[in-house]
Amino acid sequence: MFETLSPPNPDKILQLMQMFRADPRPDKIDLGVGVYRNAEGITPIMRAVKAAEKRLWESETTKAYTAVAGDPAYHAAMRDLVLGEAAPSGRVAALATPGGTGAIRQSLELVRMVRPEATVWLSAPTWPNHPSIIRYLKLPMAEYRYFDNATRDVDFAGMMADLDRVAEGDVVLLHGCCHNPTGANLTFDQWREVTELLLKKGALPFVDIAYQGFGDGLDEDAAGLRHMASHMPEMLIAASCSKNFGIYRERAGIVLALADDPRRREVLQGNLAYLNRQNYSFPPDHGARLVTMVLEDPALRADWQAELEEMRINMLKIRQLLAEELRRLSNSDRFDFIARHRGMFSRLGATPEQVEAMREKYGIYMVGDSRINIAGLTEETVPILARAMIEVGM
C-alpha cells in the first residue's frame, strides 16, 4: 500500500537547518532555528533545571505511569505560572502533552470533537504547524491581518476589522507575548479590545504561549492572556516549557481549558484525558516533573527566574545593539522597530532575493520571509548582520 504515498510538503525551517549544516564556512551564522543560545552559541541547561534533575535522579524510585492527563502537581504549577489568579482552579481543566505542538494538536482535536464546523482563525503570519494541523484535521480555516509590513508593528485596525467577521462558535488562535514570528506584540489595551470583541461575537479564544518571561517579565508577559481568561466564559491555552525552561528535547507542554462552571470543567477534563488516550495514552513526564520541582521549590524557582531574566535582558541588549548599528550604517531610523520588538524573533523586511544574497554572500541563514532569531546573534556577529543587511540593499 505504501506505493500510493506521495512526499509531504517540505518544512522550510527543517530545510534551512539542513542547508546550514552542509555549509562548510566556519563563520556562518544561524538565525533560523528558534532556540535560545548564549554568547558561546550554546543552548544551556538552566541551573535550576540541572539541580532539579540531580535531585530527581537521587530520589526517584519508579518509572511507572502517571495519570493519563499527566501529573496533577504539574497541572497546578503551570496553571499558577500561566494564569496566576485570573481563573479559579475550579474552572480550569488541564492536560499534559508532548510539547507545545502536542498541546496545539490536542486543543484542535477537542475543537473538532465538539464543533467540527467551527472556523479556526489564524493570524497572518503564524507558525507553519498551526495551518498544517488544522488542514490535517480538516477544520475550516480563515486568516486575520496581524502584521503591518510598512511599520513593522501590529496592524491592529486590520486585525479588528477581520475579527469583526468571526461567527459565533468560531475559534480565534492568538499569540501570547513574544510568540508571533514577527516579534510584534499586542499591547495590554489591545488585548482588552480583542477580549471585548470576542465576548460580543461569542467566539472561543485559543492562546498559544511558549515564551512567557522572554518579553517584559513573567507576569507582564501573561497580563493580556490573564485579562482575557478572567472575562471569557471559555478559553483554550496551549503552553510550552521548552523555551523558558530550556528543556526543548523533554517535550513538556500543557493544555489549559477554561469552562464557565465546575460541572462543565469536570466533563471537559474527562474528554481531554480521552484525547490523550486515543493519541499516545500517557504523556511524557520527565520534563514536566522537572518543571514542577522548579516551580514548587522557592530556592529553585528564584534561581530559575533569575536566569530567565538574564536571558531576557541579553536579548534586549542584542536588539538594541543591532538597531543602533543599523542606524549608524544607514543614517536612518528605519530599523528602530528591532529594539521595539520583544522575544526571540523579528521580521526584518528583506525580500526573498535579499535573504538569499545574505545566505550566499555572507553565510547568514534566516527564514525566507526574513524572520530572524535574535538569540542566534552575539555582540560579535551583530555588526556582520547589520553590514550584510545594508550591502544587500535593505
Give a brief rundown of this model:
The chain has 14 helices and 13 strands.
Q: What count of domains describes the coordinates?
A: 2
Strand count, sense and barrel status of the largest sheet are:
7 strands, mixed
Can you count the beta strands? 13
CATH class of the largest domain: Alpha Beta
Binned, the helix content reads 40-55%
Shape: globular
CATH fold-type name of the largest domain: Aspartate Aminotransferase, domain 2
> How would you state the average pLDDT, rounded?
94
Decide which structural class fits the backbone: alpha/beta
H/E element string?
HEHHEHEHEEEHEHEHEEHHHHEHEEH
pLDDT < 50 runs, ≥5 residues: none
Word description of this protein:
This protein is of the alpha/beta class. The protein folds into 2 domains: 123 residues, Aspartate Aminotransferase, domain 1 (Alpha-Beta Complex); 232 residues, Aspartate Aminotransferase, domain 2 (3-Layer(aba) Sandwich). The protein has 14 helices and 13 strands. The strands form 4 sheets. The chain has a 7-stranded mixed beta sheet with strand order 2-10-9-8-7-3-4, with helices on both faces. A two-stranded parallel ribbon has the order 1-12. Strands 5-6 form a two-stranded antiparallel ribbon. Strand 8, helix 8 and strand 9 form a beta-alpha-beta unit. Helix 4 crosses helix 9.
Salient structural properties:
Aspartate Aminotransferase, domain 1, 2 domains, two-stranded parallel sheet, Aspartate Aminotransferase, domain 2, about 400 residues, globular, seven-stranded mixed beta sheet, 14 helices
